[in-house]
């Protein structure tokens, strides 16, 4: 008996539609995030993540509606991120049915927003998403605006700061690796995992099932997040979990 | 048959409501409502107390709903209707919570709520994710649930019971962590049944059929 490593498919959503393709059999509308969420629920995903990649004020209502409809049908944990700026944004998403809400650039601009949200809703539902890029060997910097804008902030120091402010989990994306299919940035993952006492989700760069294994065995991550290897039907959630279990990682198998 | 989910402005009740509604429809469990009115608790046949966040904040918010504690006490202690506490709603059954400051709980099940302190420094807190239950005693709400079934946890504090017989199940996380408590017509889960897929839905269905 022990806590299991989580496999988390992430859906990029814009204007209420899935941006990267979801290619499963039996999906009537592959662009509908709720249908995709149901398919991942049935497939045994350990959590789901919705990322609102435009997150303008105008399309907020669409995201709330999606979260509401997903929570009505999928009785599994759901994390929502993208455009979250204030404790009021957190509250609105929690009320819609999210279990955890993720801050990104708002936490970079003002780490105290993490403390305000954690004090009000509890650390257990506050995630901070960190997008980091290698600037020199063993040195990583926070980037915002989808990896375009450098901040000069050291990623490891920032992780420590937000954990101390009450973040209950860190979603760590390597901007060097995101979309490359070359695997997680393992030294970065290990550095953040060793720096904080809260769980770390590794993200960015998964191309093979062995990459998922490495994120845990070498990176030390508590959970692995991936998008395209699942969305394009390359691997199922079940295959990923069985592969990780075969490598000796404790997994929740169907 | 009326099942009441108590709303005292503590977190998301939407998923819990939908899960209870779905299972009530499956087992003929009657109506499910979310309410902050003590008079609804007074006429309830079953009561569910959820809760997310810090113990003191939840306890204060529950106490701030005029007449709610009295209505809950009357329903659960006097009328003995089946009661389920979820997460902090389960922790508040304790005598005292020790999160931030000592805060008196409902004291329906003796014990205290203390920080999880794994004996292995590599184990992260919060205890977050799927862990497999070790069932210690049989119970009608655990019908069909066995040791090895997984539930979804997300918490930093746990219920340490005064009487170990009140613990129905635990999980291992650098030591025992209380997963389910029960005493008479009261049951509580540290995990979220409404987020624990088939295992959680089964427990909800069992609760709706439970006649203590």
UniProtKB/TrEMBL annotation, chain B:
Every Glutamine amidotransferase domain range: 44-208
EC number(s) reported in the record: 4.3.2.10, 3.5.1.2
Localization per record: Cytoplasm
Principal location class: cytoplasm
UniProt superkingdom: Bacteria
GO MF assignments: glutaminase activity; imidazoleglycerol-phosphate synthase activity; lyase activity
Reaction catalysed by this enzyme: 5-[(5-phospho-1-deoxy-D-ribulos-1-ylimino)methylamino]-1-(5-phospho-beta-D-ribosyl)imidazole-4-carboxamide + L-glutamine = D-erythro-1-(imidazol-4-yl)glycerol 3-phosphate + 5-amino-1-(5-phospho-beta-D-ribosyl)imidazole-4-carboxamide + L-glutamate + H(+); L-glutamine + H2O = L-glutamate + NH4(+)
Alphabetized UniProt keyword annotations: Amino-acid biosynthesis, Cytoplasm, Glutamine amidotransferase, Histidine biosynthesis, Hydrolase, Lyase, Transferase
SUPFAM superfamilies per UniProt: Class I glutamine amidotransferase-like
Keyword DNA damage: no
NCBIfam families to which the protein is assigned, alphabetical: IMP_synth_hisH
Description of how the protein assembles with itself and partners: Heterodimer of HisH and HisF.
Protein's name according to its UniProt entry: Imidazole glycerol phosphate synthase subunit HisH
Gene: hisH
